[in-house]
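Quiz preparation item.
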C-alpha cells in the first residue's frame, strides 16, 4: 500500500468524511485513519434541516428524511409543555451509526484509503507530516484533524480546544406506547432541568432517544450531578429502569476568533470545537467545516479555511452564545414565552432550517414576541448548502 498521500485525515466522523470526499472528488490522494473501532458515537441523532442541506451534495438517501420533526414541545419541570407545529420540518431524526456508516461508504466508494487505526503520534519533517498508526508511518503534506472532541492530534498540535463545552448523556430505549402520540413527528425539549442546558426526547420510529446536555462550569451539582439530573429527567417522563446512559462532550467555540489551523494542518468539526452553542448541534457544522478545510487545501492555503470559518460558523456562533446565555439563565421565561407566543418557537424552526441568519434573531425575536411578523432574512443558499472558501485576494 502507498504510504505517501496528499492529505491525511484523522477521524472518520462527519467532518473527516466530508473533507475526504471533497478532496478525493477533486483528485487528491487521501488517507483517513478511522479510530472508531466500530463504537457508535453517542448522539441525539437530530439532523437539522440545514444539516440535511449540508449533505445535499452527497445526494442523501431517503431514509435520512424518514422521521421529520414538524412539532416542537418546549417543557419545563412541573409545568405544562408548550407545543408548536410548523408547516415544514425543522429537523430529521436519524440513526447516528447508520449516518456515519453511509458517509464512510461514500468516502471508500470515492477512492479514499481508509485504515482502521487510531492516529497515535504525529510529527513534522520539513513540510511533510509523518503520522504514526497501524500499517504506517504515513506521510502527507496536509494533516486534517477530524478526531472529535477528545482529539489526540489537536492536543499535540497545541490547539486550545472549546472553552464552552456541553457534557451530554444519552440512551436509546424502545418507545413506550404512551409517548407515541405526543412524539410522533415531534421533538420534546425540556428547559430548566439541567443547569445551562436541556433535556430531549426524540422518537425515531419506535426508538426513543433520550438525553440531557449541560454546560460545564455551570452548577451541575458536582461529580454525579449530571447523572442525578438524568435520573430526574427520566422520572419526569414517567420512565423507570432506563439503564445507564453514555456520555460525551460537545465542544463549542467560546469566543469570536479561535485558531482552527496552522502550518500545514487544520482541525475540523468537534476537534476544532465548532458545534453550535445553543443546542450543541454539531453534525452540520462538522460537514461544513470539513468541506471548507478541504477546499482550502485544494487552494493550497489553509489561511483561507481560518477566514472562511470566521466568516461563517464563528460569526454565527457569537449570536448563538448570547442566545444560549439568555435561554439557560432564565429558562422559565423562555418556556413561558413559548407558551404565550408560538411565533417565537417558529423562529427555532427557521433557525434549524437555515432560513435565518443567527444575527437576525434579535430583531426577529422582538417582532415575534410583539406579535409582528418576524421579517425573516431568508437565505436558502446559505453556507450550509454551499460552503465556499474566500478567494485568496478578497482582503488583500
Ligand atoms: C450525547 C451527544 C448528543 C449529540 N446530539 C447531537 C444531535 O442530535 N445533532 C447534532 O447535530 N449533533 C449532536 N451532537 C454533536 C455531534 O455528535 C458532534 O458535533 C459531531 O459528531 C462532530 O463530528 P466530528 O466528525 O467532528 O467528530 P466525531 O463525530 O466525534 O468523529 C470523530 C471520529 O474520529 C475518531 N477518532 C478519535 N480520535 C482518533 C484518532 N486519534 N485517530 C483516528 N480516529 C480518531 C473517533 O473514533 C470518531 O469516529 C451530540 C453530541 C453528543 C456527545
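Solution:
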Amino acid at each position: 500500500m502507498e504510504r505517501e498521500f496528499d492529505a491525511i485525515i484523522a477521524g472518520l466522523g462527519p467532518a473527516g468524511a466530508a473533507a475526504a470526499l471533497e478532496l478525493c472528488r477533486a483528485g487528491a490522494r487521501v488517507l483517513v485513519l478511522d479510530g472508531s473501532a466500530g463504537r457508535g458515537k453517542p448522539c441525539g441523532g437530530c439532523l437539522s434541516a440545514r444539516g440535511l442541506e449540508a449533505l445535499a451534495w452527497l445526494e442523501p438517501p431517503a431514509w435520512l428524511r424518514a422521521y421529520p420533526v414538524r412539532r416542537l414541545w418546549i417543557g419545563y419541570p412541573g409545568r405544562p409543555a408548550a407545543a408548536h407545529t410548523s408547516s415544514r420540518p425543522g429537523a430529521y431524526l436519524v440513526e447516528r451509526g447508520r449516518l456515519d456508516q453511509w458517509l464512510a461508504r461514500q468516502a471508500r466508494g470515492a477512492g479514499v484509503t481508509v485504515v482502521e487505526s487510531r492516529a497515535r503520534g504525529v510529527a513534522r519533517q520539513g513540510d511533510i507530516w509523518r503520522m504514526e498508526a497501524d500499517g504506517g508511518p504515513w506521510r502527507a503534506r496536509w494533516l486534517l484533524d477530524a478526531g472529535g472532541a477528545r482529539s489526540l492530534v489537536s492536543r499535540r498540535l497545541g490547539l486550545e480546544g472549546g472553552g464552552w463545552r456541553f457534557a451530554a448523556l444519552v440512551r436509546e430505549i424502545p418507545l413506550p406506547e404512551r409517548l407515541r402520540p405526543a412524539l410522533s413527528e415531534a421533538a420534546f425539549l425540556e428547559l430548566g432541568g439541567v443547569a445551562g442546558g436541556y433535556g430531549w426526547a426524540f422518537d425515531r420510529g419506535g426508538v426513543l432517544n433520550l438525553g440531557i446536555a449541560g454546560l460545564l462550569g455551570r452548577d451541575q451539582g458536582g461529580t454525579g450531578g449530571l447523572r442525578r439530573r438524568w435520573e430526574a429527567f427520566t422520572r419526569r417522563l414517567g420512565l423507570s429502569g432506563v439503564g445507564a446512559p453514555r456520555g460525551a462532550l460537545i465542544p463549542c467555540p467560546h469566543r469570536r476568533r479561535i485558531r482552527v489551523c496552522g502550518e500545514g494542518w487544520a482541525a475540523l468539526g468537534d476537534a476544532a470545537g465548532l458545534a453550535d452553542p445553543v443546542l450543541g448541534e454539531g453534525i452540520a457544522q462538522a460537514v461544513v467545516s470539513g468541506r471548507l478545510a478541504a477546499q482550502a487545501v485544494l487552494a493550497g492555503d489553509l489561511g483561507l479555511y481560518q477566514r472562511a470559518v470566521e466568516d461563517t460558523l464563528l460569526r454565527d456562533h457569537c449570536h448563538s452564545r448570547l442566545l444560549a446565555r439568555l435561554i439557560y439563565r432564565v429558562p422559565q421565561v423562555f418556556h413561558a414565552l413559548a407558551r404565550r407566543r408560538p411565533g417565537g418557537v417558529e423562529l427555532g424552526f427557521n433557525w434549524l432550517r437555515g432560513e435565518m441568519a443567527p444575527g437576525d434573531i434579535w430583531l426577529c425575536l422582538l417582532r415575534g414576541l410583539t406579535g409582528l411578523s418576524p421579517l425573516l432574512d431568508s437565505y436558502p443558499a446559505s453556507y450550509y448548502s454551499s460552503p465556499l472558501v474566500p478567494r485568496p485576494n478578497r482582503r488583500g
